[in-house]
Amino acid sequence: MASYPVPLPGLVIRYAYLWKREADNGDVEGKKHRPCVVVLCVEEVDGEKVVTVAPITHTPPDNPEQSIELTPATRRRLGLDDEKNWIMATELNSFYWPGPDLVPTRAGQYAYGELPAVVFTALAQKILAAGSNVAEVSRSE
Predict the structure, then answer these.
(1) 0.85 cut: is pTM over it?
(2) How far apart are CA 42 and CA 138, in angstroms?
(3) How far apart are CA 94 and CA 106, in angstroms?
(4) Which segments of the chain have a pLDDT < 70?
(5) Domains delineated in the chain
(6) What distance in Å separates the CA atoms of residue 73 and residue 81, rounded to the nearest whole number?
(7) How many CA atoms lie within 13 A of 92 on its CB side?
(8) What is the C-alpha separation between 53 and 94, in angstroms, rounded?
(9) Sign of the torsion angle spanned by Cα atoms 127, 128, 130, 131
(10) What is the C-alpha separation between 7 and 39, in angstroms, rounded?
């Protein structure tokens, strides 16, 4: 089994993402493991790392301004499928690293790879622009 990678911003991991609408309906676990982008990693006083991730989905966004479509080249480099994928900038999960919801990819690694810096920068800008409109689920309580 592969070891856990360092959760650096821009790293794409495989994680059981819990959508805000699912959490609002009482769900406590994500229904599907999906690629997610590490947006932030903070080490708390007790030494535990809290990681915040944004989901990658095949579902086209309602508002394209609140997401980033991955190019075919980026999808190939990460080992994702050929279908279109979007990173959602208005949905986030936070959890203690590594946590039980982090699982290996089909290649047996916990990460697909890293986003190009320009894509990660654009994602960070969209998250900041969304401000209080970002739906966050904390799974680190």
Answers:
(1) yes
(2) 14
(3) 24
(4) 1, 45, 141
(5) 11-138 (2.30.30.110)
(6) 11
(7) 27
(8) 6
(9) positive
(10) 9
